[in-house]
Each structure stands twice: as C-alpha cells, then as structure tokens.
Amino acid sequence: MASILKINNPTRKTYKILLAPLDWGLGHATRCIPIIKELLINKYEVCVAATGDQKALLEEEFPFLSFTELPGYRIKYDKNRAFTLFRLIFSIPKILIRVKEENRWLRQFLEKEGVDMVISDNRYGLWHRDLYCVLITHQLNIQSGVGRWVDGWIRRWHYRLINRFSECWVPDMPTGTGLAGKLSHPERMPDVTTNYIGLLSRMERSREDGVIDLLILLSGPEPQRSILEKMLWEQLKSFDGTWVLVRGLPRGGSPLTGTNVYDHLRAKALNEHLTKAKLVVARSGYSTVMDLVRLQKKSILIPTPGQTEQEYLGKYLTGQRIALCVRQKDFSLNDALLQAEQFSYVILQEQNDLLQGVITQSFSSARLG
Predict the structure, then answer these.
(1) Domains in the chain, ordered, with CATH?
(2) Over the chain, what is the mean pLDDT?
(3) I need a surface site. Which of 116, 183, 201, 264 has the fewest CB within 10 A?
(4) pTM score of the predicted model
(5) Alpha-carbon distance 131 to 133, whole Å?
(6) DSSP-derived secondary structure for 270-325
C-alpha cells in the first residue's frame, strides 16, 4: 500500500499522527487533550477521528486541527442497573462487529491519507500491520461484575485485541496499585510493550481559594446522565450554599434556568470553577477522577449504575480514602454531604509526569523524529 509508506520518509519534516477517542462518555476525549498538546509541542501534525460529543469537545479545544468523522459504538444504557449489565454483555457481538468495521475504515482512510502513527483511545479496530499503532486503556483487567471466571475469559479475549497493536499506553502511575487499582495493575500484562504514562488531565492547579460550596459535574451516557441530573436538580433547591451545575452537554441540551447552570465549559473555564470548588459531585469515570486528583479536590462520586468499571473505581477509591463513593439509587444530597464532612480524605500526590518520556521512547521505536 504505497500511500501508507509515507511512514519514516526521511524527506518529511512533520510527521502526521491520527488520534481517535472512543465515543463512550466524554472522558476518552478529555484525556486525549494533554496527549494532543504534547504532540503539538513536539511539532507533530495531528488529525482527530471522532464523532458526536467527543468530536464537538475536541473541535472546541483545538479548532485549528483537522477532523474526520469516525462512527462510534453507540452503546446504550438502561434505566435499570441489571438491564444495563445484560445490555452490555449482549452488546459484545455488536462491539466485535464494530471493531472489524473500524479496521476497514482505517484501511480506507489510509488509502486517501498518509499517516505515520495511530494513537487509539479504546478503539480496538484502529491497528494496521504496516503502521506503528498505540492503544490507550486503563482497563487491562476488565471487571465484568459477574465473577472471576467471566473476568478471566474477558481478559484473554481483551489481550488478543491489545496484542494486535504495537504498544499499549496505560494512563496511571506505575508503582503500587496506582489510581485505578487492579484495573490497570493486573497480575499478568499483555504481550506487547506496555508503558504507564502517568495521570492524564487537562487541569492545572492554581492558588485560588474555594468560593463555590458545591460543584456538580455530570457526564456519561444516556439515559443515566439525565436521570442523575433530574435527581440532583430537585435536591439543589434546598441546598444552603453556593453551587454550580455543569451538565456535560457540549452540543447543548434542553434548557435549565439559572446563571450557575452550564451545558458545557471549555477546559480553562472548567479548570477555574473546579479550582474554586470546596466539594465536587461527579461520576466515578476515570478521566474525571484523574482531573480531581490533579486538582487535589474532595469529591462525592456516584457510579453510573451497571457500569462495572465505575462501580469498582468507586469502591476502590473509597477504600483508599481518595474519594467518597455513594450509590445513585435513592441518592440523598444532604446525607452524602454529611458523610463527606465525616470522611477522612487522603490527598494523593502524583508522580512526575511520564507522558513526554513515553512519547519520545515510543516514537523512537516507531522510527519517527
């Protein structure tokens, strides 16, 4: 395939990287922001393949980049936790079909556009034997919520997908159990080179004092995002303090009245609001957790019902006293706030950023730069 052989062309000064986040919540897109920034600092050309809210968010942050439409997985949740689990399990054949379609899409894309490397955040079809392809995932050890036998079967199947790539990047700290516990620190690693790249966050700490008593940061798939929003919206009416609600809707949504309600905030504005917040209520999505750890914020986390990764993270982080996890079922804001007052939070200290070193090492392996 001659068009792909632009890779390692010694006459080419600027290398082109195709980066693609999964369309499963905004977190996969937000954690790609520091990677994109690092690539741009190193003078690489970045093309983003995305769809929906993820594409809208990244276009807003990087309007000068080139974007291409890549259809998503469109995984649907249910209002009921048990039905959500069954829906996710029975979605596996659909996911495998989508992986094959993704791979076909990449081959067709490469016939038209030459790129030097692919960086895929949880899109398992974006690999090619003639390209250096990197997979980003913090879930090496997926938790099914069904049992160890099923978890073992999923891990074997998962590793077969990972091992198609040239390398795997894990957004976590390499020592101990890190921030994601056994999700990112399994007993057995994939066969491909696997590097921990530290915590990925677009947030930066500042010295502003807390002037917002409560900041609610919503995210994740429907209908659970709207269910939690409705639940919190009613309870905020009796909250005695200052609050801000960020709805997690980059393309907008049905109106909610109030000067302290935002459909979406760009990274800089969100950073400012989070810095001022004394307490944050959010989903226990991993990208959100990385942002909160970066800003050293106390938080109440509400896992998306049926999303076993978030449920595991919530329990693990509560056990580590990094965050307080509360179930969505029969959620009471007043009760959660009382628990938070009595909770002994531990402020986690990040290790030095590893991303730059891993990029340099990986691009050397790919013979770029």
Answers:
(1) 2-199+353-365 (3.40.50.2000), 214-342 (3.40.50.2000)
(2) 87
(3) 264
(4) 0.87
(5) 6
(6) HHHHHHHBS-EEE---HHHHHHHHHTT--EEE-PPTT-HHHHHHHHHHHHTTSSEE
